[in-house]
Amino acid sequence: MSVTASQSVVFARMGDPEAHTIDRYVATGGYEGLRRALSMKPEDIEAATTASTLTGRGGAGFATGQKWSLLADAYPRYVVVNGDESEPGTFKDRQLMERDPHQVIEGALITAYAVRATRVFLYVRGEMALAQERIGQALVDAYAKGYVGSNIMGSGWSIDVVLHWGAGAYVVGEETALLESLEGKRAFPRIKPPFYPAAKGLYYQPTIVNNVETVSTLPWILRHSGEEYAALGAGRSTGTRIMCVSGHVKNPGNYEVEAGNITFRDLIYAPELGGGIRDGHTIKAFVPGGGSAPWLFEDHLDLTLDPGPVAAEGTMLGSGAVVVMDDSTCMVRAAWNLVRFYSHESCGQCTPCREGGNWMEKIMWRIENGAGRMEDLDLLLDVGQTISPGSFPHASNKATGLEATPWPYRMTTICFVGPSAVVPMHSALTRFRDEFVAHIEQGSCPVGAHA
Amino acid sequence: MARLNAQNVERAKAVIRRYPRERSATIPLLHLAQEQDGYITPEAMEHIGELVGATAAEVQGVATFYEMFKHEPVGTYLIGVCTNLSCMILGAEQVLEHTEKVLGIKAGSTTVDGMFTIEEMQCLAACGGAPCLQVNYRYFENVTDERVDGIVDALRNGRDPEGQSIPPHGTLSNITLPAPTTPADRERPEEIHPAPQGVES
Q: Which residues of B touch A252 (CB under 8 A)?
């Protein structure tokens, strides 16, 4: 069996164009995980989830079973599914919501039963009209067939699931900002402590916030076992996860992989996965885990998709989004593009992020357009230091002998949006300083075309 | 018309009943107001405040935070072109420029006939189909200049672009979500073990 072959867990129904209908879902094992869960005590489901080693797939990678165990002993308590996917490069949750919406609902129900929640909220990104419709219809059908609502499957257990429609704000992906938004406010991340919504969450009641992919994994774990899931993959990267591959590869797309068994080289170059760089080009840099993740380069292709070694190299697997840039890409413009994103998405609470992101974007834009000054390079790093003091995580650089500074970074802001704006600037400037210098000396972008 | 009409007040009340606290309905009600008027009016924000127990200023604070809420009329078709990293390196800036040229307007503005608005969007979670755009939040992936021409032409002539039905900007899904069956603020849920009547299998 090829190293890239993987057990299909969350993507098992992706080849079925009718998988979003309740009939097809039930005919393919749908709601069997919930039925199994309802025959168990909630504590035993938590134990099975802990045994599965499942970690959060939204980006932070927190152990799911452990997260549940942190719940304060108070009621009402809530489960919130985070479907506000908007990390640059990430497009897996949308596919799960559009094409297998019942699996999301079933996973949310299993979570709710396991943690004795009193209501479930599915927070779906506002810009995803089809996902909204598919989940909405799935809920209507699931209520009608007795999988949601009162006395579910005749078990005596009841819960309601509310579909909540977002309205466009990246920062909602931060879980405390999501809760503020769900309370009908601006999505301002909350000051920590309390660190975990499990202690103080929605309406300051105990709340579990889990990502769409995370909850979508639970029906399989219940139908099989935690141990069976934990046996997939290897190292600290057990189970399967979806990697979103995009950019200059031949086969962009979502791939469910046993990540611990493969390397970035496998993911990007294997013919059945990314398929390699488009003809006539070579790889220049890649984003390994969503726009917030420090970049990696050709020398890192043999890293295993495991959070341990990836963190030691100064970055993270984050949301599982790999954006590949080939030798035609202007590093100043690529980094500017992401800095502009995080600067634009700053909620404005913290001055270092609101002002720093904005200035980094402006400075990089003038460098890209030939109006930069040599002192801008140190100025950029200085702004970065204000948002994220201390040595910033970066990958090792064989060319210059630079040692890797491991993940994570420190920050002067409430949430990770500010430091995320520093990431692309710092990665590009650390590795491709000569390209920044060439822009300044030449008075224009040496790459020119940007596509 | 700017306050919610009678029918929408009924819909608003049904939405509010889904949440343990009324104010949680603020964003869904703003979507409702946008469907009714095409954008968010000051009167609608005041009315929503009355319905959810917030001041008009608090509702305005929310309505101006989220990008989907518009505060002036937009076109029947909102064309959002993603220019984030994966799309940019695969030609999104060209797609945006071409769209601007075809419609004769710049991103952020609306054609004089009120039919189209162009918006430069942030990552739309379609990076595997880059470059991508949305028309009223419906996806078109791997777009090219020729496909932009076709989409615009179809919309101008009242046809579904590439077979995809696109309701006017602001239109909400016509699916009526089920009303909750349990009390919003109930205490610890029922224990079903040992099961009172056993779980069906």
A: 86, 127-130
One domain, residues B93 and B54? no
Query: At the top level of CATH, which class does the domain A235-326 belong to?
Result: alpha beta
Residue of B83, B85, B190 lying closest to A89 (CB–CB)? B85
Provide the Cα torsion A159, A165, A171, A174; round to 10°. Answer: 10
E strand spans, A215-302? 233-234, 237-238, 241-247, 253-257, 283-287
Per domain, the residue ranges of chain A are: 22-230, 235-326, 330-451
Same fold, A22-230 and A330-451: no
Question: How far apart are alpha carbons A119 and A139 in whole angstroms?
Answer: 14
Which amino acid, residue A69?
S
Each residue's pLDDT, cut to its tens digit, for chain B (201 residues) gives 589 999 999 999 999 999 999 999 999 999 999 999 999 999 999 999 999 999 999 999 999 999 999 999 999 999 999 999 999 999 999 999 999 999 999 999 999 999 999 999 999 999 999 999 999 999 999 999 999 999 999 999 999 999 999 999 999 999 999 999 999 878 888 889 876 554 554
What dotted CATH number matches A22-230? 3.40.50.11540
Best mutation target, B89, B166, B171, B175, to test chain A (most A CBs within 10 A): B89
* ipTM, two decimals: 0.95
B positions 71-90 inside 8 Å of A (CB): 80, 83-86, 88-90
Question: Does the beta carbon of B146 lie under 8 angstroms from any beta carbon of chain A?
Answer: no
Q: Do B201 and A133 touch (CB under 8 A)?
A: no
In chain A, residues with a C-beta closer than 8 Å to the C-beta of B137 are 126-129
Nearest beta carbon to residue A150 from set B69, B125, B181? B181
B84 and B18 belong to one structural domain: no
Instruction: Examine residue B82 and state whether it is found in any structural domain, yes or no.
Output: yes
Calpha distance B14→B47 (Å, rounded): 16
**Is residue B187 a part of any domain in this protein?**
no
- pLDDT tens, residue by residue, A358-377: 999 999 999 999 999 999 99
pLDDT band at A451 (very low <50, low <70, confident <90, very high): very low
Q: Kindly state whether residues B82 and B148 are assigned to the same domain.
A: yes
Q: Does B28 touch chain A (CB under 8 A)?
A: yes
Q: Look at residue B124 and tell me if it is in a domain.
A: yes
Nearest to A304 by CA among A335, A266, A331, A334: A266
What pLDDT score does A32 carry?
Answer: 98
CATH number, residue B84: 3.40.30.10
Domain A330-451 sits in CATH 1.10.3720.10:
no
Nearest Cβ partner for B52 among A130, A162, A184: A184
Angstrom distance (rounded) from CA A238 to CA A306: 9
Residue B140 in domain: yes
Nearest Cα residue to A264 out of A240, A293, A286, A290: A286
How far does A69 lie from chain B, in Å, by closest CA? 16
Are the CB atoms for A188 and A347 separated by under 8 Å? yes
State the nearest Cα–Cα gap between B147 and chain A, in angstroms: 18
Is pLDDT of A127 > 80?
yes
- The one-letter amino acid at A198: A
Residues B57 and B21 in one domain: yes
Of A367, A375, A355, A362, nearest to A331 (Cα)? A367
- What range does the domain containing B136 cover? 77-163
pLDDT at A2: 76
Beta-carbon separation of A167 and B27 below 8 A: yes
What CATH number corresponds to the domain at position B35? 1.10.10.1590
Find tokens 């309601």 and name the residue. A160
Which residue of chain A is at minimal alpha-carbon distance from B131? A247
Together in a domain, B85 and B51: no
Of all residues in chain B, the one with the smallest CA distance to A178 is: B24
Q: pLDDT tens digit string along A289-335?
A: 999 999 999 999 999 999 999 999 999 999 999 999 999 999 999 99
Q: Would the pLDDT of A449 be above 70?
A: no
Q: Which residues of A touch B30 (CB under 8 A)?
A: 167
Task: Give chain B's domain count.
Answer: 2
